[in-house]
Amino acid sequence: MRGAAFMTISVAAFVVNDTTMKLVADHLSIFQAIFLRGIFTSLLLAGFCLYKGHLLYRIPKGDRGLVCLRLIGEVGGAIFYLSALFHMPIANATAILQALPLAVTLAAAIFLSEAVGWRRYLAITAGFIGVLMIVRPGSDGFNEFSIYAIVAVFFIVLRDLSTRRLSVGVPSLFVSLLTSVAVMVVGAILSMTMEWRPVTVEAGGLLAMASVFVIFGYLFSIMAMRVGDISFTSPFRYTILIWAILLGFFVFGDIPDQWTILGSIIIVGSGVYTFYRERNLFRQMNKKADARTMGEG
């Protein structure tokens, strides 16, 4: 239950971060906002790394390529997702991003040769149908920013698959710091292609708030994974949709239509079923391993 609570707090923090970044859109360009938030976030993470003694960590050669791929995934995901978030309702963008666990499962089957049965393939297919119901190609509300949200999912899949392959000894805080610096640098470069707007006190406060909440999101997500049973805590990530709908309504006055709500339900149902299947398969594998061990004994 502690793990479930940490996961719920984590996704709530991420939604508050998204909400503040969306509010920043009224003051700054997207790349200027990414760059300035990156400064705040990088300084905070550098302080954490210094405290933990990981600030000058030397990445093993075997992990350097994976770290680079993770940086590409994080940078691409941040740019495309925030581009979508700046131009579409927060509940819609958040709902599309919830297809991530399904996309990771599919990518792991294709690129890492992980076993995926027909039931999970059906769940993945249903989840992607839910995404199409939210995006609705050909409808009046469909635009390029809907595609940006989907592209962000694929970049984040690259990030997550690369993270899976990292050695256990590589500090998560140090990798997070590298990621934050990479996003900051790319934001700085791309901000030169757009008009630089004066940073007001309100915009600076919102960026500082976003930086704090995004770090809270990372820290509580790590605690959720380490404290609770992953198969039990992971479905609680979908409480993010509740926060997104509430904040979207009270802050921006957005009310999700019936297609967005139905698509979100399908995505959540598919994701929860996938977690359930993976939990059962994991238990079956452990039972077989225990049986073999007893037989050998």
List descriptors.
mainly alpha; 12 helices
Task: Please work out how many helical segments DSSP would assign.
Answer: 12
* Overall helicity: over 70%
Strand segment tally: 0
Shape: globular
Question: Overall pLDDT, averaged?
Answer: 85
Radius of gyration: 20 Å
What is the terminal separation in angstroms? Answer: 36 Å
Q: Proportion of β residues?
A: under 5%
* Main beta-sheet annotation: none
Q: List the secondary-structure elements in sequence, H or E.
A: HHHHHHHHHHHH
Structural class: mainly alpha
Which blocks of ≥5 consecutive residues have pLDDT under 50? Answer: none
Provide structural commentary.
The protein has 297 residues and is mostly helical. The protein has twelve helices and no strands. The protein has helices spanning 2-24, 30-52, 61-87, 90-97, 100-111, 118-135, 144-165, 172-191, 201-227, 230-233, 240-252, 258-296. Helix 1 runs antiparallel to helix 9 (201-227) and helix 5 packs across helix 7 (144-165). 44% of the residues are buried. The mean pLDDT is 85.
Task: Please give the structural blueprint.
Elements: H1 2-24, H2 30-52, H3 61-87, H4 90-97, H5 100-111, H6 118-135, H7 144-165, H8 172-191, H9 201-227, H10 230-233, H11 240-252, H12 258-296
Helix pairs in contact: 1-9, 1-11, 2-8, 2-9, 3-7, 3-8, 4-11, 4-12, 5-6, 5-7, 6-12
